[in-house]
Amino acid sequence: MTLKEVYPPNTDSRFDSYKAEHAKSISNPSEYWGQKALEELEWFSGWDTVMQGSFLHGDIAWFVNGKLNTCYQCVDRHIEKRGGDVAILWEGDEPGDVKEVTYKELLRRVCQCANAMKSQGVKKGDTVTVYLPMMVEVAVVMLACARIGAVHSVIFAGFSAEAIAERIAAANSKWFFTSDEGKRGGKTIPLKNISDNAMAKDVAKGIVEKCFVYKRTGGKTGWTEGRDVWMDELSAVQRPYCPCEIMDSEDPLFILYTSGSTGRPKGVLHTTGGYTLWSHVTAKNSFDLKEGDKFACVADAGWITGHTYIVYGPLSNGVTTFMFESTPMYPDVGRYWDMVQRHKFTQFYTAPTAIRSLMRFGDDEPNRYDLSSLRVLGTVGEPINPEAWRWYYEVIGKEKCSVVDTYFQTETAGHVIGNLPGVTPMKPGSCTLPHFGVETVVLDAQTGKEIEGNGVDGVLAIKQPWPGITRTCLGDHERYLNVYMKPYPGYYFPGDGVTRDKDGFIWITGRVDDVLNVSGHRIGTAEVESALVAHPAVAQAAAIGFPHDIKGQGICCYTTLTNGYEESEDLIKELRNAVRTSIGPFATPDMIIPSSSLPMTRSGKIMRRILRKIASGETDTIGDITTLGDPSIVQILIDKVEGVM
Ligand code: ATP
Ligand code: MG
């Protein structure tokens, strides 16, 4: 099958109704969101004003003076109707190690955790740092914090002691959650010991008063009397009911750090009303959630994708959400598909990087499993190149599932651009059209003027506030204004380049800082990478610019090769040609560097800023690499590039 340019929904009328509803949602956002907030959430008391503030002043507030509790939305309100349904389905590192937690049981566990925290002095407004592996307890702790009004700051369990220490200090967090150890891909990770090192670092010393420790493996750990508390024991003796704190719509719900792809991670703050509505509505719309669905997002809870689409969004919608402790490669590359078959997931949500790496192992793997329960497949994190989209759609979805390409950021709380299954068309490689309430525009990067019409490119911006927009950066409102609000006054600036195609569909071309400018031609990194990945030899590709005497910028492409392909001069020539024929001679890469892996953030994104430094020979100013999965790859690439130049 060759890839079609567009896959329309079965009926045009549904696309028309999307257009009408979208137009309504942006022409009168207060009316639209006021009504949605009433229909979709339960409020203890109503608001005075639906929305106030602007991007210009960075003072946005939603549902002003409205009162609600996010944990109540996700747990309590389902008890009467579906208390016996499974809320969380968990699978551990070893296949078949499965736990199910019903809504009723979840409520009891959340309440015991909440009461345990209160018994130790945790109060509304306190920040609670959470450094847990993918245990059910991550969700329990997040919900318990929401219940008592504490602000959680979840740190992905792959982070180092330095990164944790910085985050404890930045939030001045007296409360800390971890587990004895974690399990991932057959390996044991000494989380408590890493936490001890973090709490002992100079920046964090003396800040944490209580360190709550869950048991995951029963392995040996260090112990500080007076500070450390076994959480399973403390919870077990608590009353399994705890009333919900009545929260203001604008009370903080959580802090979360961005992935750190472009620099020092930003501590983004989300608030109660707007976030809860955004996670609920976008989860429902993007994945067509229905009663009885088993929704599987295989991200980590420590990223925005996990916060919104493992915990808050699915639970608020009352479906079963899946939590996965392991990796797609453990014990073998069929793990995801084996789980789809065993659990009969209705939706499956992952990142292009996972799709590309599984695609390298061919179609036979997924074809061994029954994947017929799937209705919707989702992708997030980076532009998905059409080649990987096609594999996802054909081989995993058997051409029967919708593939939703969801564009969002830590800062946007949830999806802001993406197709809606069965409603709007799919276009491989394009994240398609904005969600309700999101008014996207294309700006001229230099003048900041809106570019009208279709078949245009520039930078992406959003014209008016939506409920999920982050309200500030932790302890640094100035940075919030500088990064998002000031570059183009009056607009929210996500930092991504964009093309609006002839049909008005949106294509993310890459980070604005990464756009290639070769002899005056502006070329999106995503376009070059797609051309490379379309070649069977290439598994992953990252295109970056480096200073070039004649052209201004040259293009350097780092690639990892598919199983069975060897690095050779002929292959490099062939890859160069592949880009040349696909885009044009001006886009021919100057350097192609095959390697065993690429520097990835721990959330699985390629860190181009590091690749740029390496290609430019600026190896003494590489910058923050604390969010890098495997730092040793940096030196390997430095040596390779020096060998070529
Ligand atoms: P930092 O902000 O610290 O540099 P980050 O931007 O990688 O890190 P996230 O908030 O996890 O942190 O990622 C958001 C970014 O990911 C978006 O700005 C965009 O560049 C990219 N992205 C996410 N989803 C998509 C998608 N569906 N298509 C294209 N790009 C996407
Ligand atoms: Mg970002």
Features of this protein?
645 residues, alpha/beta, 8-stranded mixed β-sheet, 7-stranded mixed β-sheet, 19 helices, binds adenosine-5'-triphosphate, binds magnesium ion, ATP-binding, ACAS_N, AMP binding, ligase
Overall 3D form: globular
Major sheet, described briefly?
8 strands, mixed
Number of β-strand runs: 30
Cα(first) to Cα(last) distance is 41 Å
Radius of gyration: 24 Å
Unique bound compounds: adenosine-5'-triphosphate, magnesium ion
Separate helix tally: 19
Strand order of the largest sheet: 12-11-8-6-7-14-15-23
Write the layout of secondary structure elements.
Blueprint lengths: L11 H16 L1 H12 L8 E4 L8 E4 L2 E2 L1 H13 L3 E6 L6 E5 H17 L7 E4 L5 H13 L2 E4 L6 H11 L3 E5 L2 E3 L2 E3 L1 H10 L9 E5 L13 E3 H6 L10 E2 L3 E6 L9 E5 H16 L6 E4 L6 H13 L3 E5 L10 H9 L3 E4 L1 H8 L4 H4 L8 E5 L5 H11 L5 E5 L33 E4 L12 E7 L9 E2 L3 H9 L10 E5 L5 E6 L4 E3 L2 E3 L1 H9 L4 E11 L3 E10 L7 H14 L8 E4 L13 H8 L17 H12 L1
Parallel strand pairs: 4-17, 6-7, 6-8, 7-14, 8-11, 11-12, 16-17, 16-18, 18-19, 19-20, 29-30
Antiparallel strand pairs: 1-2, 3-13, 4-5, 9-10, 14-15, 15-23, 21-22, 22-24, 24-25, 26-27, 28-29
Helix pairs in contact: 1-2, 3-4, 3-5, 3-10, 4-5, 6-7, 9-10, 12-14, 18-19
Structure described in brief:
The protein is 33% helix and 22% strand. It is globular, with a radius of gyration of 24 Å.
Structural write-up:
By secondary structure, the chain is of the alpha/beta class. It is 33% helix and 22% strand. A hairpin with an 8-residue loop joins strand 1 and strand 2. Helix 9 crosses helix 10. It is globular.
